[in-house]
Amino acid sequence: MKIIEKSKEKIIFIAEIDESLANAIRRSVLEIPILAIDEVEIHKNDSALYDEVIAHRLGLIPLENEKLDLKNECSCKGKGCSKCTIQLKLVAKGPGTIYSSALKGKAKPVYDNIPIVILNEKQELELIAFASPGKGIEHAKYSPGLVYYRNLAEIKIDKSKLDKECVEACPHKIITEKGVNEKDIYKCDLCEACVEKCKGIEVKPTKEIIFFIESFRQITAEEILVEAVKALKENLKVLGKA
User: Fold this and answer.
1) How does 224-234 read in b/e, with b if 16+ C-beta sit within 10 Å?
2) CA 160, CA 45: separation in Å to the nearest integer?
3) Distance CA 185, CA 208 (A)
4) What percent of the chain has pLDDT over 90?
5) What is the pTM of this model?
6) CB-based burial of residue 176 (10 Å sphere; 0-12 exposed, 13-18 middle, 19+ buried)?
7) Is the C-alpha dihedral spanning 229, 4, 66, 126 positive or negative?
């Protein structure tokens, strides 16, 4: 493996692995337990939005992840207790836009500026939200981020046929007047725009896989990779027993 870029929110790395393994890791990301609002008790809603729409919007607000038991594995048998559920409260009055920062409780929204609803003068919204961990295979709101991959590109250039039109054809500015910018080769998504404009360029995929992980910030990008591999190993154990 070779790391191209790494931060809390994003990791890009190149690996010599089979596509089936890369896809297995990608799919396993949806089996990482992530905290999200699962149930909402709305006590007052004077806004223009239906209760169901507000509940849906609340569910899609990313929350900082907490290590809790999954409801179906908790000792309360899914009824909801302190081991598997966190309560958040929202009390707001108009006029103005109500943002995710209005949610108060032990679980903190990752982003404070996500709009929930607009309240006019004298309109009110009061609710209690219950957040529980779940997996992306159940609902998209439990997804920790975006994970995707593609084959690393190999670009061959006949410099005698390289001109300004060839250079400008590349949307990612990988091709220069001197040839290929090797540092940015990972940006090539095999669109072949340069091939269509210039006969002296050949682009083909290699066996190496370039992997992209972008976190929604409930957990870090590195944690997404590590936890996805753990989930894959657990599934392989179950398969082995079967």
Assistant:
1) bbebbeebbee
2) 69
3) 12
4) 73
5) 0.86
6) middle
7) negative
